Amino acid sequence: MKKATFHTTLLSIPIQAVVAGFAVWWACGCATAGEAASIALKDARSAKRIPVILDTDIGDDIDDTWALALLLKSPEFDIKLVVGDKGKSQYRAGLIAKLLETAGRTDIPVGVGLGPTSGGGGQSAWVKGYDLKAYPGKVHEDGVKAMIDTIMQSPQRVTLIATGPVPNVAAALKREPRIAERARFVGMHGSVRRGYGGSKNVSAEYNVRADPKACQAVFTAPWDITITPLDTCGLVHLTGEKYRAVRDSKDPMAAAVIANYRVWSADQERAKQAESRSSTLFDTVAVYLAFSEKLVKIERLGIRVTDKGYTVIDPQAKVMKVATEWKDMGAFEDLLVKRLTGPTVKPSDKP
C-alpha cells in the first residue's frame, strides 16, 4: 500500500473541505499545514451526501440516460431510488435496472411507475431480453409508494429530481401530502423566456405539456422548487473534443450511454449524429441543479402552469428558483465530460 503523504491526502479531499481546513489553520495558528489537512479530511468525512430520488421518463428521449449516468457519477448524492414515470412501466424499469447493473449499483432500488405496463421506445433494442425479475437489487412494483416511504422515512430532507412528466409525483402528493414538508423538488420543466433551440418564442415544453394537471399539482405544493426550463437546459450539447471524450471512453457507464445513444439515434433515423455530437442534454441540468447553482443565473419567479402546458411568469403564483440563463455553459459541459468519463460512485465511497 502506498504510504499517504500530505500531498496525496489533500488530493483525496474535496476542495471545499481543503479551503475550510486551511481557513481554520490560518485563524487558529496551527503549527503545520499537515494539521490543516487533518482538519479538512475530518470535515470531508463528516459531510453528508444529499439523499435523492430520480423520477424519470427514461427510454423516450435519450437525455434521461445521460442524466442517470451523471447522477451515478456525482459524489454529492446518496441515491435512494430510481422510478420510471409516464407509462411503459416495464420497459422503463428494465432500462433503469440494466443501467444500474452496468454501473455496479444494484444496491439502488428500482420503482415501477404508474401507467400502462406495455410499450417500448427508442432504446428497446438495448434492453431486449433483460429480465427485470433477475435484477439483484430491490424492485418496487408500486414505485409511488416507494417514493413516499423513502421520503417519509428519511432522517434528512430528500431531493426529488424529476426529468419527465410528473404523474408519479402528483400521485405521491395526493396519497401523502406531507412529503412536501420532507422533500424539495428539482425538475427539468417549462419555458420561461425562451423556447426550444433558444427561440425567442416560448414553448409548451413536453414535460409540462404531457400532463399539465400533474405539473400544476407539483408546482403548487408547499415544497421548495428549483427548475431548469428550456432557457438553460435546451442549449446544452456536447460537440468536438468534449463529445469524443465521452464517445471513446472505456468506462462501462459512459460506454453504455453511447451504446444507448447509437441505438436510439438509429431508431430516430439519424445514426450519423451519434458519432459526432450529442443530442440536446436537457435533463443533465436538473441533476446539476440538485447539487450546485454556480454556473447558472437563478431568479426567484412566480410560475403558473396553464392548462395547455405553458409555464407563465405570474407574480401571484408560487415562487420558485428558476435557472434562466447560463453564467458559464462551457464549464458545465466540461464538468459533464469529467463526470461521465470518471468513476461511478460506489456504496463503499460513502462517508
Q: Looking at CATH, which topology of the largest domain would you report?
A: Inosine-uridine Nucleoside N-ribohydrolase, Chain A
Mean pLDDT: 89
Q: What is the tally of beta strands? A: 10
CATH superfamily of the largest domain: Ribonucleoside hydrolase-like
First-last Cα distance: 21 Å
Tell me the helix content: 40-55%
With strands numbered from the N-terminus, the spatial order across the biggest sheet is 4-3-2-1-5-6-7-10-8-9
Structural class: alpha/beta
Could you say what the CATH architecture of the largest domain is? Alpha-Beta Complex
User: Measured on Cα atoms, how large is the radius of gyration?
Assistant: 21 Å
Shape: globular
Number of domains: 2
Distinct helical segment count:
15
Word description of this protein:
- The structure is a single chain.
- The chain has a ten-stranded mixed sheet, with helices on both faces.
- By secondary structure, the chain is α/β, with parallel strands linked by helices.
- The chain folds into two domains: 6-46, no CATH class; 50-238 and 270-344, Inosine-uridine Nucleoside N-ribohydrolase, Chain A (Alpha-Beta Complex).
- The chain starts with 5 loop residues before the first helix and ends in a 10-residue tail after the last helix.
- The chain has helices spanning 6-11, 15-28, 33-46, 63-72, 89-102, 124-127, 143-153, 167-175, 206-209, 212-219, 230-233, 240-247, 252-267, 282-289, 329-341; strands at 50-56, 77-84, 110-111, 139-140, 158-162, 183-187, 225-227, 296-305, 311-313, 319-326.
- Strand 8 and strand 9 form a beta hairpin.
- The protein has 15 helices and ten strands.
